[in-house]
Write a structure and sequence with these properties.
The protein is an alpha+beta fold and 95 residues long. It has one domain. The chain has three helices and four strands; from the N terminus they run ββαββαα. The strands form two sheets. It has a two-stranded antiparallel sheet with strand order 1-2. Strands 3-4 form a two-stranded antiparallel sheet. Strand 3 and strand 4 form a beta hairpin. It starts with a strand and ends in a 5-residue tail after the last helix.
């Protein structure tokens, strides 16, 4: 599966953070799209949080997102700046 980079703080809104690697998550194209649509996020403790309104028939998305709600994801220490996570989550009404 191809890996895409996702910026927690979007380039268009925060151009000075474009090259900051602590603003980047590597996700598949499918998961990148789901993240951008606000279907899931991660919290400051790197736990997966799923939008309560998110429903899917996709086995892939069920297995990798909805069934894992609340699980801590593996991210190398200090590879993702908590400030960017908080900034992103502040834009989501359901968080």
């Amino acid at each position: 599966m191809a890996c895409w980079t996702l910026h927690m703080s979007p380039w268009s809104d925060y151009p000075k953070h474009r090259v900051d690697l602590s603003n980047v998550l590597a996700l598949s194209k499918t998961h990148h799209a789901a993240f951008d649509r606000g279907l899931f996020t991660i919290d400051r403790d790197y736990r997966l949080r799923v939008n309560p309104e998110f429903e899917t028939r996709s086995e892939l998305l069920q297995r990798t997102i909805t069934d894992r709600d609340g699980e801590r994801i593996s991210i190398p220490d200090e590879s993702l700046e908590p400030q960017y996570v908080s900034q992103h989550n502040a834009s989501l009404e359901w968080v």
